[in-house]
């Protein structure tokens, strides 16, 4: 097995310093996009592989999180396009264990991460977010959940900043109308 060069070791160290701190945020965003923990993990893994492969194009000290989210979003779009062109397939193993899967979904999970995620966002809010059209949901999540600026989001999604403002405004209004009853039930009064 060949030894790593000093340059390769430095690349690994820089990658770990710049990229690894953003794994949780990437997973949360991927989970919101895919609505499936397994798909979210695959998407994050794909993003990390691409980020490492093209790490030489990353300018050290710039916004690593925005760079990663752009890679993640592009990977999600590319994967979605691939899946939409494939005919539907049925996995025999999944069908044969259908009953076991349904039973397992009804039991309470012991996975701490799932429990924490469920407690962070109430089902009504999560469902309202999921019902937003993807363009609006993505911008709302990137701005209001992940805290990116309009400029960063515009760069990630490769759209004009005015489009970001418009999508954010419309997305928030859609959420507001969907969550009005939710708010009333919890004692919030509309202005």
From TrEMBL:
Domain RNA polymerase sigma-70 region: 22-85
Source organism superkingdom: Bacteria
Domain RNA polymerase sigma factor 70 region 4 type as annotated: residue spans: 124-173
Alphabetized PROSITE patterns for the sequence: SIGMA70_ECF (PS01063)
GO terms for MF: DNA binding; sigma factor activity
SUPFAM superfamilies in the cross-refs: Sigma2 domain of RNA polymerase sigma factors (SSF88946), Sigma3 and sigma4 domains of RNA polymerase sigma factors (SSF88659)
Entries under InterPro entries matching the protein: RNA_pol_sigma-70-like, RNA_pol_sigma-70_dom, RNA_pol_sigma70_ECF_CS, RNA_pol_sigma70_r2, RNA_pol_sigma70_r4_t2, RNA_pol_sigma_r2, RNA_pol_sigma_r3/r4-like, WH-like_DNA-bd_sf
Keywords assigned by UniProt, alphabetized: DNA-binding, Sigma factor, Transcription, Transcription regulation
A Pfam family this chain is assigned to: Sigma70_r4_2
Keyword Protease: no
Transcription listed as a keyword: yes
CDD domains from the UniProt entry: Sigma70_r4
GO process annotations (BP): DNA-templated transcription initiation
Family named by the database record: Belongs to the sigma-70 factor family. ECF subfamily.
Protein name: RNA polymerase sigma factor
């Amino acid at each position: 097995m060949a030894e790593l060069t000093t340059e390769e070791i430095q690349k690994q160290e820089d990658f770990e310093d710049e990229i690894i701190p953003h794994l949780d945020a990437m997973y949360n965003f991927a989970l919101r996009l895919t609505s499936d923990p397994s798909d979210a993990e695959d998407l994050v893994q794909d993003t990390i592989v691409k980020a490492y492969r093209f790490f030489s194009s990353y300018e050290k000290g710039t916004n690593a999180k925005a760079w990663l989210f752009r890679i993640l979003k592009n990977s999600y779009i590319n994967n979605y396009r691939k899946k939409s062109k494939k005919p539907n397939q049925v996995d025999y193993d999944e069908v044969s264990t259908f009953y076991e899967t349904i039973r397992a979904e009804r039991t309470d999970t012991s996975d701490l991460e799932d429990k924490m995620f469920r407690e962070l966002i109430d089902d009504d809010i999560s469902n309202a977010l999921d019902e937003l059209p993807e363009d609006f949901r993505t911008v709302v999540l990137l701005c209001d959940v992940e805290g990116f600026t309009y400029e960063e989001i515009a760069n990630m999604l490769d759209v004009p900043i005015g489009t970001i403002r418009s999508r954010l405004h419309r997305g928030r209004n859609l959420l507001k109308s969907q969550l009005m009853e939710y708010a009333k039930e919890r004692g919030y009064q509309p202005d």
